[in-house]
Automatic annotation (TrEMBL):
Belongs to the SRR1 family. This is SRR1-like domain-containing protein. InterPro entries: SRR1-like (IPR012942), SRR1L (IPR040044). It comes from the Eukaryota.
Amino acid sequence: MENDDGFIMVGKKKKHNNKNKIAIKKEKDKNSGFIYKSYKTKKTSTVANKISTETIQNQIEEKRTKLLESKFYVQLLFELQIIKPLIQYYRSKEKPEYFNVDIVSYGIGNFMKSRISQFQFALCILLKANLKLNGKVYFYDPIFTEVEKEVINNYGFEVIEDNEHGKRNINKMTLFYMPHCNYNLYNNVLGTNWELGKLSKLILIGNDFSIYDENMVSSKLESEAPFLKAILPLTKKVAFPELFESNDIFNNTSIHFFPKSNLLEQSEQFWNMKDKYKLEEFKEISN
C-alpha cells in the first residue's frame, strides 16, 4: 500500500502483524541500492531557490519541535543511553564535553516534499546534539535536489556527491543513520568494514536486522546480504519506541552495534568472508 509520501508498507507474508511491517521508499531502479519515489523538479531562479530553502528549513524546524515535545523522543533519549558508553573513548581534544564521532546518512529521500523525510532529517539533527557529537555529518541520496543540498549545507553538514554504494571505509567511530534503507545497502556498509577494529567502531540506525531474518528465506538472505546474515547473532540492538505520530516514520527502526567481545570470538573463516563475497555495485541514478 502506498501513502502520500511514496512509501510502501511491506510485511510478513504469513502473519498479519502491523508490528513487522517495514516502510520503504518506492523503487525506481532495482539496482540503485536506494528504494524511493522520484519527483520531477522544475528549474527555479536563485531567488526562488532561497525562498524554497527557507521554507524547507522552517518545515524541518517545525518537525524538530514536534519531536522534542513528543513522548516518543523522551523514550528515545532513554534508549540512546546505550550509545554513550560506546563513544566515551572518543572525546574531542578541543572540546572534551563532545565526542569526535561522524554521522553518515544514506537514503532519507526528498525532504523537500516528504514529511517522513523531514522528520528523519530533524531527528538526525537531534541525535547529533543529544549525543554531543562534533564530528562531520554527511548526507547522500541520489534524488537530492540542489535546493535540498543547499539546506544540508546551511545546517553545517556535507553532501556526498557521488554514490558510494554504501561502501564507506571508516577510520573512526561512525554512526550510520539509514532509516528504511534497502538491506543490500546495510550489507555493503558492513562488508566494507569487515574488520575487528572497524565493526567495533560502527553504530547503525536502520531497519531492525532481525526482520530480514524472519521474512526472507535463509538461503536468499545469505546470498544477497551475507554480511548482514553473519553479523546477526553478534549484534546488540535497541529498538526505537514503537509509535510516533503514525507508524510510518520510525517503525521497525533499531540501533545496532557490534561489541568487540563478540567479534573477538570469531574464527578466521568469519573474517575471510570479505575475500569470498563481492559487494554489489549499484548504478548511479540522476535526480
